[in-house]
Structures are given as structure tokens and as C-alpha cells.
């Protein structure tokens, strides 16, 4: 059975992170619906490996924005819901995203992929603002980008496993081998 460190669905929005602190004895996935929860997953080292850390940060932003957008669409009285007001204004959304990315960056100060993900997400946000997109359109653009990041990461990880396996088997003659993997092999 293949364990995936990240399980994400776009519709309905759902993000589950494998708690890697419990491996190999338990396989427990934890729900993440907010930036704060994504931050805690990274900070507490429940997610490991540079690419996965960057993805959890990006996905926690995307999932919170998706949920807020759905709540905004379903809420008729937006004035009573301060957190949802960020959806009503692209400028407010941009400020929220900037602050959220800055916050997520403090979860693991040495994680290069975390900073790269944040930089790219900020560029996507700025592009949306410059194009005068609505908040909903900016959120869709961010989600599209994050989904592509996740797909690319899965493809990269499978290729690492495939080519690494082929290389190892090319070096032995019908011998049993043991391999320990970490970080980003699926």
C-alpha cells in the first residue's frame, strides 16, 4: 500500500495530512481546514520533506480561501462576518494572503521550498490583482496553481522512485536489497 503524505480534494474542499511523527507504527491523517492548522502541522514536524512542507503551506492557504469563499457565497449578511469580508474586496484578500504567507513562512525558518511556494503564491496573487480579477477569481487562480504544484510534486516523487529503483536493480544480480526512503519518494 502506498502512503501519501497529503490527501487533497478540490470539490468539496478537503485537506488531510499524514502525521509522520506516528510512522511506522500508525497511519493517521489529520484534517487541515485553516492556515493555523497548516502552520501547526509544519511547526510540529508532522509533515516532513522540503517539497511536502511547501505544499502543506500552499494547500492550507488554498483550503482556507476555498472554505471562506464558500461561506461568503452562502452568507447573505456579510457585514456580520468579519473574516468573510476579505472575500468581498480583492485588496483585502491580497492583504490577507500577504499576512498569511508571512505567517506560514515562520513555521519552519530553514525550509527553502516553503519560501519558494510563498513567493510563487504571492506572484499569482499580484497577477490577479493587476488583472483586476474579483476575489473569487483570484482564489480560483491560487487553487489552480496549488493543484498544479501538487500534481507536479506527485509526478516528481514517482519518477524519483522509478528511476532510483531502476538504477539500484541495475547494480545487483538477482540479490535481495533493502532501501530506506525519506522526504520525497512515493
Q: Which superfamily, in CATH terms, is the homologous superfamily? A: translation initiation factor eif-2b, domain 1
Structural class by SSE content: mainly alpha
Q: Mind describing the biggest β-sheet?
A: 3 strands, antiparallel
> Into how many domains do the coordinates divide?
1
Put simply, the count of helices is 6
Helix % is 55-70%
**SS strand fraction:** 5-15%
**Contiguous uncertain segments of 5+ residues:** none
Task: Give, in spatial order, the strands making up the sheet with the most strands.
Answer: 1-2-3
What CATH architecture label applies? Up-down Bundle
DSSP E strands, number = 3
Order of helices and strands: EEEHHHHHH
- CATH fold description: Four Helix Bundle (Hemerythrin (Met), subunit A)
GO molecular function, one term: S-methyl-5-thioribose-1-phosphate isomerase activity
InterPro entries: IF-2B-related, M1Pi_N, NagB/RpiA_transferase-like
Keywords: Amino-acid biosynthesis, Isomerase, Methionine biosynthesis
Family: Belongs to the eIF-2B alpha/beta/delta subunits family.
Structure explained in plain terms:
- By secondary structure, the protein is mostly helical.
- The protein has a single domain, classed as Four Helix Bundle (Hemerythrin (Met), subunit A).
- 59% of the residues lie in helices and 6% in strands.
- The chain has helices at residues 35-43, 50-74, 85-88, 90-105, 112-130, 135-170, and strands spanning 6-9, 14-18, 29-31.
- The protein is elongated and about 65 Å long.
- The termini are close together.
- 31% of the residues are buried.
- Pfam families: IF-2B.
- It comes from Diversispora epigaea.
- This is S-methyl-5-thioribose-1-phosphate isomerase.
Amino acid at each position: 500500500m502506498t502512503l501519501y503524505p497529503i490527501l487533497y480534494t478540490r470539490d468539496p474542499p478537503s485537506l488531510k495530512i499524514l502525521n509522520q511523527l506516528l510512522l511506522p507504527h500508525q497511519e493517521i491523517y489529520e484534517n487541515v481546514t485553516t492556515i493555523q492548522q497548516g502552520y501547526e502541522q509544519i511547526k510540529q514536524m508532522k509533515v516532513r520533506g522540503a517539497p511536502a512542507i511547501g505544499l502543506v503551506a500552499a494547500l492550507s492557504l488554498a483550503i482556507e480561501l476555498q472554505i471562506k469563499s464558500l461561506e461568503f457565497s452562502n452568507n447573505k449578511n456579510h457585514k456580520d462576518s468579519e473574516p468573510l469580508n476579505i472575500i468581498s474586496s480583492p485588496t483585502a484578500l491580497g492583504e490577507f494572503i500577504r499576512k498569511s504567507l508571512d505567517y506560514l513562512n515562520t513555521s519552519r525558518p530553514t525550509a527553502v521550498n516553503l519560501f519558494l511556494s510563498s513567493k510563487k503564491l504571492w506572484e499569482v496573487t499580484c497577477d490577479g490583482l493587476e488583472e483586476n480579477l474579483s476575489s473569487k477569481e483570484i482564489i480560483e487562480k491560487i487553487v489552480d496553481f496549488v493543484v498544479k504544484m501538487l500534481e507536479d510534486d506527485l509526478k516528481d516523487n514517482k519518477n524519483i522512485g522509478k528511476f532510483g529503483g531502476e538504477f539500484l536493480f541495475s547494480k545487483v544480480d538477482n540479490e535481495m536489497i533493502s532501501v530506506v526512503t525519506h522526504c520525497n519518494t512515493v
